[in-house]
Amino acid sequence: MAGPTPAQVEGYMRMFELLSDAEWCIEENLGWTVVRPDRGWLTVDDVVRRLRGDPDAMTTCRPADVRWEDDLVYLEQRGDAVMIVEYAANSAEEDALKRLSQGATVHGVFWGINNFNSLFCGVDGVLVTELDTLRPGHRWGTDPEALADHLDALLELHDPSRHGTDRGAAWDWPTAMATLGSLTDLRLDADWFRRPQLCATVNSR
């Protein structure tokens, strides 16, 4: 078993602390998705179109300055991959995941109020694995074990016999984010939310 290191999890815990003064409380709602093409290149414009937005209408803003907007997503090109961050779960919806994962692999995580959450992987329009990060032992999809090598931190956190539960609920979402970082080799930090990022309204077409 593998996954994020303790230092990586602690880094996301620190990110949450540093963003405590942001306009939106990311502990309540956040989605982070990474789309990586099977071959070639995928652009931010391509991803916005797949989310039924208009690339020509994109602007820039600092995510930390924005309150809840259900259909607003923030995007960044990271090499051949595109990263999507949002205060909702547009990218995790079944139809959106099918579109995003055409000719691509999509890894994502989101959570909302009342602990509704998911860590998921889609490939070529198919949901490969999905799980509730608060119950990581229960997984579903065409290959429920596809992410197993990256889940150790989540499994430990929610296993009373390993004393992970002693850390408390504040570690739930930082551990989920660190797990996505382990799956994608990408990182988010507080400074990212405070810098201008491309943003687009989706579900508009």
- The chain-level structural class is alpha+beta
How many structurally independent domains?
1
Strand order of the largest sheet: 2-9-3-4-1-5-6-7-8
Largest sheet: 9 strands, antiparallel
Number of beta-strand segments = 9
What portion of residues belong to β-strands? 25-35%
Order of helices and strands: HEHEEEHEEEEHHHE
List segments where confidence is low: pLDDT < 50 over at least 5 consecutive residues.
none
Helix content: 10-25%
As a whole number of angstroms, the C-alpha radius of gyration is: 16 Å
Nearest-integer average pLDDT? 93
Q: Using the alpha-carbon principal axes, give the shape.
A: globular
Distance linking N and C termini: 43 Å
| Number of helices, counting only DSSP H or I runs of 4 residues or more | 6
How does this model look, in words?
This protein is of the alpha+beta class and 205 residues long. The protein has one domain (6-201). The chain has 6 helices and 9 strands, in the order αβαβββαββββαααβ. The chain has helices spanning 6-18, 44-50, 94-100, 152-157, 172-184, 190-194, and strands spanning 30-37, 59-61, 72-78, 81-86, 104-111, 117-123, 126-131, 139-140, 197-201. The chain has a 9-stranded antiparallel beta sheet, sandwiched between helices. Helix 1 (6-18) crosses helix 5. The termini are far apart. The model has no long low-confidence stretch (mean pLDDT 93).
